Amino acid sequence: MNDIQLTPELELQIANGDLAVADNLKQAQQLLLVTNKGEWKQNPTMGVGVSNYLETGATDRLSREIREQFSRDGMSVSSVRITGSTLDVEAEWK
Question: Which of 3, 31, 55, 75 has the fewest Cβ atoms nearer than 10 Å?
C-alpha cells in the first residue's frame, strides 16, 4: 500500500517539492512497534510499545502483542522471531 513517507527522524519526507509517496509496509510496522497505546488519536488501543518489553524478558508477551497489533492493522504475520536484542518480523498486507 502506498502512503506518505517519513524520514528516519519521523518528519514528512519531501521529494521534488511535494510529499513523497511510496510503499509503506516497513514504515507502518516500525511505527506500530515504537508507539504505545494511547498515542494514535484515531485508534487509542493501537501500538506495541516495544520499549516497554526491553528488559522484562517477556518475549512471549511481546510476540503475541506484535501479532495482535499487526493483524489489527491489516497485516498477515508469518513469523515473529526474538533472539537476544534482535527482533525479526515477517508480515505483509492482506
Answer: 55
Q: What are phi and psi of 50, to 5 degrees?
A: -55, -30
* Helices 59-72/25-34 angle, 10° precision: 130
Rounded CA gap, 50 and 32, in Å? 9
What residues make up the domain containing 48? 25-93
The total of structural domains in the chain comes to 1
Q: Does 37 map to a domain?
A: yes
User: What is the residue type of 62?
Assistant: L
18-54 residue pLDDT tens: 999 999 999 999 999 999 999 999 999 999 999 999 8
Is there a contact between 15 and 8 (Cβ–Cβ < 8 Å)? no
